Amino acid sequence: MTSFEEAETEETVTCLHLTFYHPGQEEKRMFRCLDFCRREQVRADDTAKFGRDSSVCRYSLLDTRVSRIQFSLHFYRRLHTSEYGFEIKNLSKRTKLTVNQTELGYLNKIDLPWKCIICFGDYQILAEIQEGEAMDYFETHLHLAETPILQEKCLPSLQPIPENGISPSFFLSQGKSPTEMDENDL
């Protein structure tokens, strides 16, 4: 046998990719304490905290509008499966946190979807989970976005168009309201 054949099987590691954006990131440099260059290992039993207080938070944001501890991420194994996930908890008494438009108040927590957008104040964070098998630790890989993650687009409200192709706005412009009829009545 060769040393290659005797080597232990390599485990894949769950990696949480976090892409940060703030409209004032160029001038205020609130992300200067974050390491965007490499993956970082975090022990499975550690809670990854994000906030202003660098003595408590693993990921420090240099902004007085950020709470001392803004939110935490906890790595866990789902019950009766071999899958791993993350739980996000809002630890700010002043600022609500949204995860894909689900609003979390103080001490509220939910499972982090495999891909989602986390928002608080003017901060936008795209979180993407890359699944792995390792149980003792996970990795984080931080990225910096140059453009907003959420693009606020003013789209006209999309109304369903009936099969006959006549838009409901056609009836409203003529002072009539649409009426429901059976297709056999035509």
UniProtKB/TrEMBL annotation:
| Stored InterPro entries | FHA_dom, SMAD_FHA_dom_sf, TIFA
Gene Ontology cellular-component terms for this entry are: cytoplasm
* Keywords linked to the UniProt accession: Cytoplasm, Immunity, Innate immunity
Where it sits in the cell: the answer is: Cytoplasm
Gene Ontology BP terms:
innate immune response; positive regulation of canonical NF-kappaB signal transduction
Q: Which residues form the FHA domain?
A: 49-121
Return the CDD domains for the record.
FHA_TIFA
State the similarity comment.
Belongs to the TIFA family.
Q: What is this protein called?
A: TRAF-interacting protein with FHA domain-containing protein A
- Organism source for this protein? Sylvia borin
Question: Gene name on record?
Answer: Tifa
